[in-house]
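The records we work with from here on pair a chain with its fold. A complete example follows; check for yourself that the lines match position by position.
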Amino acid sequence: MLEELLVVREYAHGEIVISHLDEDRDVFFVLDGLVRATLYSRHGSEVGYRDVGPGDVVGELAAIDGAPRSATVEALEPARLGRLSAAAFRKLVETRPGLNAILLEHLTAQIRRLTERVFEFSTLRVRDRLIRELLRLAEATSVHEGRAEIRPAPTHFELATRISSHREVVSREMSAMAKAGLVEKRQGALIILSVTELSATQASQ
């Protein structure tokens, strides 16, 4: 039923799906590819706070509260998204009780993630924030015999936007972790050589 209501469109790498403070209220379902919700400061500094992949939704906040868009959403790679009007989205949620529970769980998960990040930004050093972000990326991929392969490897700039830091600082910390035998870049992937050791390094700070 939902598929029949969606207007499907393909987005190129780097194409804007939603612009910060836009007045439209449509909801987007990611069918293929990856998009990122980002905020930019007046000076152009970028803070990426949420990556959205297949099966997830973006733009739901504006559909719920009617306020302007809270972030810019950009395609990180070629992506295919289904667009649903705010009115149709609200009608589905109101008429199908099961969707209410799914939406509540989705929003609760977002709040938990943002609460965790606020704590990290307020209390942890860049190295600790970076390690926690690498561990989150490891959790999202398969871990085999204690090793995790993150593919494609995030750039140092991308990692910096995720942890509210600068590329140069992240590059220095990643170099130190590589020398310590914790991470390795190979054939377009970032290899965490021992998730346990990386976690222990963070926990010992």
Q: What stands out?
A: The longest strand covers residues 46-52. Helices lie at 2-5, 60-65, 86-95, 97-123, 126-139, 156-163, 167-179, 195-203. Residues 125-203 form a domain with the Arc Repressor Mutant, subunit A fold (CATH 1.10.10.10).
